[in-house]
Amino acid sequence: PTVPGARAKSCSRGRRQGGWEEHVQNLNRVLELDPRNLFLLQELSVSYLLLRRYPEMAAILDQTITLAPEDPALRVARASIEFLSRGDTRPLHTAIDAILAQSPSAARPIAIQWLTLALCERDSAAATRAVANIPTDGISIENTWFPRSWFEAIAARARGDSAAARTHFMAAREQIERLMRDQPEYGEPLCVLGMIDAGLGRKVEAIQEGRRGVELVPEAKDGRNGLTARRHLAMIYAWVGEKDAALEELSAVTKRPGYLSYGRLKLHPEWDPLRGDPRFEKIVESLAPKGNAENSKK
Fold first, then answer.
1. Is the dihedral of CA 200, 206, 209, 214 positive or negative?
2. CA 265, 266, 271, 276: dihedral to nearest 10 degrees?
3. What's the pLDDT tens digit per position in 118-127?
């Protein structure tokens, strides 16, 4: 029984160091010994997500859901694949509506996915409802903690309430600064601080914080978190009007395994400042499903 756990730690370490193929192979070997291990199955599904290998991700999630059929997060993850790979939000929308109708209390574990869907569908009312289900003490996404006030600011921006967005961004800034007083060299929250300052129009501070955050989480030492930091820097550049720098970072990030997908780049408003630039559209198309170039342009 100790072998799968020990191998799982090795697998996770391999992924963080960038050994993606080895990591996937190791996880599959461990699952041969322990095929009902939910943790390992979810680890493998995340690995396929990061590698943008969506058919394999779907197959693993189907297997996982047979073991936990009522888990709302698993159901939403499975329904999100068409959105991630093709920019089709309909299956995800249908799944979230069904989950909420069945059990309103299930909104909390799927609040971030609900918020992402609402933003991509430009449904500001749904975005506000989704944010209301985010824990008051915030939430970690991709190993990075965000205060709830960050999401409140994003929802306010979506509904065009710039005054409320500023108030929430300021509250988020205070919380991140409080976190960093004891950990001033903590790269991930420094990137969040940079995004907050970008939202506040503090261009110089935002760029400095984003660049420093990337320096503190180098991709060479931590491929997964390092790429997340670079993606956050790309968003900072986009929000403060440094389009060339944003596109340079974004181009590099999308050539590596990571959470950025065709659907998110195509639909999410966080990238709106880059829309219409042929260089951005080329990056989006680079993630389009193969053999579906014509459909992806529609």
1. positive
2. 130
3. 999 999 999 9
Residue 80 has pLDDT above 90, yes or no: yes
Q: Which of 113, 62, 57 is nearest to 89 (CA)?
A: 113
Name residue, tokens 């297997």: 63
pLDDT band at 7 (very low <50, low <70, confident <90, very high): very low
* Helix runs in the chain, H state only: 2-16, 20-33, 38-50, 54-67, 72-79, 81-86, 90-102, 111-120, 124-131, 148-158, 162-181, 187-199, 203-216, 223-239, 243-254, 262-267, 278-286, 293-296
User: How many Å apart are CA 62 and CA 92, to the nearest integer?
Assistant: 15
C-beta separation of 287 from 261 below 8 A: yes
| pTM score over 0.85 | yes
b or e along 256-289 (b: 16 or more beta carbons within 10 Å of the residue's beta carbon)? bbbbbbbbbbbbeebbebbeeeeebeebbeebbb
